[in-house]
Amino acid sequence: MKSLVFLLLIGVAFALDDDKIVGGYECARHSQPHQVSLNVGYHFCGGSLVSADWVVSAAHCYKSRIEVRLGEHLIKVTEGTEQFISSSVVIKHPDYDSWVLDNDVMLIKLSMPATLNEYVQPVALPTHCAPAGTMCVVSGWGNTMSSANDRNKLQCLNLPILSDQDCENSYPNMITQSMFCAGFLEGGKDSCQGDSGGPVVCNGELQGVVSWGYGCAEPNSPGVYTKVCMVTNWLQATMASQQMLIPHQPDHIATMRSLVFLLLLGAVFAEEDKIVGGYECVKHSQPHQVSLNSGYHFCGGSLVSPDWVVSAAHCYKSRIEVRLGEHHIRVNEDTEQFISSSRVIRHPNYSSYNINNDIMLIKLKTPATLNAYVQAVALPTACAPAGTMCTVSGWGSTMSSTADRNKLQCLDLPILSHQDCSNSYPGMITQSMFCAGYLEGGKDSCQGDSGGPVVCNGELQGVVSWGYGCAERDHPGVYAKVET
C-alpha cells in the first residue's frame, strides 16, 4: 500500500510512444529486407536482421521467447516469402535503464540461421555516428493514424536526424549519450516512430532503433531513437561470444558478465501468458479483471477503483486502452467498456534486471462504470500467509488443445512459504515477491497473463510477474507482492 500510494503522488516522467508511423507511405515490397516482425502469437515489435543469426531490437520490447518473422510485407497474409524462426537467446544491453530508457537495445539470437535471399538480407552496423541533417528511413507495421494506410503493410517514412541541441531542447535533461532525435520540429509531419524496436537506416547503415517519444507529430516533440553507433562494440562483442551463450535460456538479462553471473545463480526468465491446468472462469466472476490493449491484448490487470488499474511494470506502454467487462476477448458481448489511459506510472524502484517491484498504476481517462460486469477488487489490508488459496486469471496461452485462450481462464493455487520460494529461486526472491503454485510440478503453477490478478479472500495480493518454465518441478510462479 505504501508503494501504491507513493506512485499516485508522482507524475509521469515521459511517455513512450510505441507503434506509430504518421505521414509515411507503404514501403516498396521487400525494399527493407532487414526488417523483421517480433511475434508471440501476435506482432508486438519490430527489429533488424544484422547477420544471418542475429536481430537487433529495443530492450523495452523484451520477452523471454520470441518468434522472429522475416521476409514479411503484409503481416496478416502468407505471401510465400516469409521465414519464421524462434529465438534461442534474448539479451538486453547490460546498462539498459527501464526508467529513462537509456541503452534501449537488445540482441536476439536465432535458433537457426536465416536463409538470405532477395526478401531477407541483413543491414550493416554503423561505422560511425551519422551527423545531424542526415536523411534516414524508419519502418514498421505500427498504427498509421490514417484511414487510407494499411498498418498490416510495412510502412516507411523519411526523416532527418536532428542536432543534439534541438533534441535536448525538446526533452530537457532526458536525452542521454545513447539517444538521438529525428523528425520535424514544426510537427504535423512524420516525426512519430515506427514499431518499437524497428530500424532507422541512414545511408545503408543501422543508425537507430525506435525507442520513445512524446505525443505524435507534435511541435517540438520529435521521435527519440537508440543511437546504435554508441553500442556497436557491445553488439559485436556479444555476437562474437555466441559460443559462450547457453541455448534455450532466452530470457536472462545478459552480457557475458551477466551470463556468467546467471550460471552461478541458475536460470531465470519471465514466463508470460500461460495458465496451465486451469479452467474457463464463470462469466464475469472476476469483474476486476481487465485486458490491456494496444491494438491487441498484451497483458492483464486489475481494477482497484473506478479510476485506477494495477498491472505489472514490465507490461509498460505509454498509451494503453483498458478493456473492462470482458470474457471472450474476440467477441463483442455488450458488457465491455473500453477506456484509454491518461497516465501510466511504474513503481519508482522497478528493476528490469531482477524484476523487483514489478508493479504499475494506470489512470483511466474517464471513470469506469461499476455494474454486474465491472467491479473493483480490494487492495490488501495485510499480506496473506503461506497456504492461502488464491485465484489467478488471464487470457494467456492454456497449452491445451481444448481450452480457449480467448475466454478468460482461471486457476486456483496456494501461496508458498518464503523458504520454499527462495529454495526454488536461490538469491532471486526479494521482499516484493512471493511464489504460488505446486512444488511437485505438473499442475497449475504457471501464470496467467503478465500483470494479471492474484486474488485471495477477495483481496488483490499479487500481480503476475515471472517464473521459470511452466508447471515444472520446484519452479512455481513468482508474483509481485501488492502489500509491501
Task: Please characterize this protein's 3D structure.
The structure is a single chain. This protein has helices at residues 2-9, 164-170, 232-240, 256-265, 418-424, and strands at residues 25-26, 35-39, 43-49, 54-57, 67-70, 83-92, 106-110, 135-140, 155-160, 179-182, 199-202, 205-212, 223-227, 279-280, 289-293, 297-305, 308-311, 321-324, 337-346, 360-364, 389-394, 409-414, 433-436, 453-456, 459-466, 477-481. The protein is mainly beta. A 7-stranded antiparallel beta sheet has the order 1-9-8-11-12-13-10. A 7-stranded antiparallel beta sheet has the order 14-22-21-24-25-26-23. The protein has 5 helices and 26 strands. The termini are close together. β15 (289-293) and β16 (297-305) form a beta hairpin. Pfam families: Trypsin. Residues 21-240, 275-484 form the Peptidase S1 domain. Its main location: secreted. It is an enzyme of class 3 (hydrolase).
Chain-wise SSE layout:
Elements lengths: L1 H8 L15 E2 L8 E5 L3 E7 L4 E4 L9 E4 L12 E10 L13 E5 L24 E6 L14 E6 L3 H7 L8 E4 L16 E4 L2 E8 L10 E5 L4 H9 L15 H10 L13 E2 L8 E5 L3 E9 L2 E4 L9 E4 L12 E10 L13 E5 L24 E6 L14 E6 L3 H7 L8 E4 L16 E4 L2 E8 L10 E5 L3
Strand order of the largest sheet: 1-9-8-11-12-13-10
Tally the helices. 5
From the alpha carbons, calculate the radius of gyration and give it in angstroms.
Answer: 22 Å
Largest sheet: 7 strands, antiparallel
Low-confidence stretches: 1-20, 144-148, 243-274, 398-402, 444-448
The secondary structure category is mainly beta
Shape: globular
DSSP strand (E) fraction? 25-35%
